[in-house]
Structures are given as structure tokens and as C-alpha cells.
Amino acid sequence: MVPSSNILDFRQVLHDSKNIVAVVGAGVSAASGIPTWRDSDGIWTAYDPAKLATPQAFTANPSLVWQHYHALRDRALAAVPNPAHLALALLCIPDLLRGIAPLAKFTLVTQNIDGLDALALERTIESYRAGRGNGDTCEASRLYEMHGRVLDTLCTSCDRRQCDRTSPLCPALASSSLRTAGDEIHSKDLPRCLHCGGLLRPGVVWFDEVPHHLREIWEVVDHADLCLLIGTSSQVQPAAAYAYEVVDHGGKVAVFNLEQSVDDDHCEFLFLGPCAETLPAVLF
Ligand code: BJW
Ligand code: ZN
Q1: What does pLDDT average to in each consecutive run of 10 residues of the chain (284 residues)?
Q2: 119 C-alpha to center of ligand 2: Å?
Q3: Ligand 1 site-directed mutation target among 23, 28, 32, 37, most atoms within 8 Å of CB
């Protein structure tokens, strides 16, 4: 199939859809200054994921892994949502969604760990409520952060998960970065749990771990008649399978990406370019 980039045709499909799911990847945060994983300047192009993003890597060298995540946390703390995050957040507000897709339910599934989708949603809900000025509650659509959050910590002993925006999380991580990671930090000086003293780990989903909310996400994907696949290379399972599942049961896929990929032959629509520009332009 040769995908179309006709905006009016896409808007008609959007208008007629009943269950829309957006599956989001690192390209959505690119305009916020967060590097992607597999592009030429991506994190996994410079570093080996097997040494940094697996439970085995953490057991073998928690100091190295924490120095890597300290740098990722600082990037996430400095970043603000861009127009792509905000466009998706607008779709999460049922009253606004009704304007372009009157029959639809919308669900946002992000693979990103930077928390920017949630921040954009929080801010959008706040301004929407402030704009209405009548204290109306606003029941936003669901957001599933399937690979966790880099600003969360997870205790390896008592399993407590907590959002902690402190930086550095402990004095030993001050001024450390992966490039200076030659100096090993003793385990007792790494971030520790305030409740039980156990070693903390970053609250993200590593390779070989089970992503979050899988049952809820499959339920949404199984019923979706339109999947927006935005800024992802679709190389990581299970997220990579979602668009195929939507096509398999007769739904449509619209891809928003910088470049065309071999997998795009299953999509009905393809909008090439930075999604911080294409997404707002195509949706609204
Ligand atoms: C733009 C843009 C702009 C740029 N505008 N676009 C062998 C075969 C198949 C599968 C496996 C296998 N061996 C193991 C597996 C499974 C494994 C996997 O898929 N591995 C493959 C890499 C081979 N998956 C897992 O282990 C997952 N768990 C799992 O499968 O559990 C088993 C299970 C499942 C279900 C039920 C029961 C059990 C866990 C995956 C965890 C992924 N973790 C990471 C890191 C998190 C934080 C960290 O540790 O540091 O998550 S990896 C990394 O990749 C991150 C991302 O969320 C994820 C996806 O990357 P994404 O978002 O697609 O980024 P990129 O960089 O790849 O692509 C960016 C795209 O944006 C590109 O297309 C650009 O063109 C585009 N772009 N700028 C628009 N401005
Ligand atoms: Zn603990």
C-alpha cells in the first residue's frame, strides 16, 4: 500500500473513528532536547544497552548504571513539553476531542520515560479548567507510560516506587556523568531507600522486564480503529506489535515520523517531518 499524506482524507478518518490509540516514541520528545535511542545521535548509538539497561547490568555495576541515569534524569528535569506533547494532550480532553472526532475515545500510550506526556497533560487540564472558570472537573483520557519514568526510583528491597525530582539523588552522583564513570561509587553511597535502606534503582523498564499496563493497553489496541504511530522506530516489543494488531483487525494506522521505514507499508497515512510541526498541523 502506498500511504497517503492527504490531510483532509486523514481528518475524515479521524472524524469517523470510535477508538483512537496513539503509540508514542522518542521522536515526540526530540524537540524538547531529549535524545532518541537509535538515531545517529541516539543514546544506544553511543552506549551499549546490554551494559546499561538490563537488570543484569544493574546487578553487575550499579554505579555505572546510576551514573548513566543521573545524566538522563538531569535532561528530563531540564526539558519542557513541546507542541507535539501539547497536541496529544489536547486530544485527551474529551470536549476538545469531540470537536475533531465526535464519536471517539482516545488513549495515549507512551514508551517515553521522560514524563513529558504527563506534564503536558497536567498543564493542559489545568488551563482548560481555568479557561472554563467554573471549577468543572475534567475526566481526561488515559495515559499509559509503559516503560516507566526516569524520575521515579524503585527500591530493590521493599519495592516502594516514588517520584523524586532531586538532583543529584545522592552526593556521590554530583558532577558525575557516563563519560567520567571510571570512578566506581560504592553501593552504600548510591541512592538508598528512606524507608528500609535498600538500594534504589531507576523506575524504568529495562530489557527483559515486563512493561507496565500491558493488559489495559492490549484491551485498547484490540478495539482501536485508528492508531497514530508517532516518533518511534518500532523496534522494541511489545509496543512494535500494536500497529500491526490494529491493521490485522481492520483498523487504520497513521505514521508521523522524520523518515519513512520499511514497516510503513502497512500504514494508510504517512506524515513525514518533525512531529512537533506535523502533529499540530495535521490534527487541528
Ligand atoms: C522523529 C523525530 C522527530 C526522531 N519527529 N519523529 C529479539 C527479537 C524481538 C524482541 C526481543 C528480542 N530479544 C528481546 C526482545 C524483547 C525486547 C525487544 O524488543 N528487544 C529488541 C530491541 C530486539 N523487549 C523487551 O525486553 C521489553 N520487555 C519484554 O518484551 O518483556 C517480555 C514480555 C512482554 C509481554 C508480556 C510478557 C513478557 C522491554 C523493553 C524495554 C525498553 N526500554 C527502553 C529503555 C528505557 C529506559 C532505559 O532503560 O534507559 O525504552 S529501550 C528504548 O527503546 C526505550 C524506548 O522507550 C524504546 C523504544 O524506542 P523508540 O521510542 O522507538 O526510539 P528510537 O530511538 O528507536 O526511535 C526514534 C524514532 O523517532 C525514529 O523512528 C526516528 O526517525 C523518529 N524521530 N526525531 C518525528 N522530531
Ligand atoms: Zn525500601
Answers
A1: 94 98 98 95 90 96 94 96 98 94 97 98 92 74 96 98 97 72 84 98 98 98 98 96 96 96 87 98 96
A2: 27
A3: 37
Look-up: residue for cell 528535569? 77
Which CATH number is 46-78+149-204 given?
Answer: 3.30.1600.10
Residues in the chain: 284
202 in contact with ligand 1, CB cutoff 6 A: no
Catalytic residues: 147
Q: Which three cell numbers stand for residue 275?
A: 512531529
Q: Which amino acid is at 182?
A: G
Q: Are 22 and 230 in contact (CB under 8 A)?
A: yes
- pTM of the entire structure? 0.96
Rounded distance between C-alpha atoms, residue 249 and residue 266, angstroms: 12
- From CA 276, how far away is CA 30, in angstroms rounded? 9
To the question of domain 1-34+81-147+212-284 being in CATH 3.40.50.2000, the answer is no
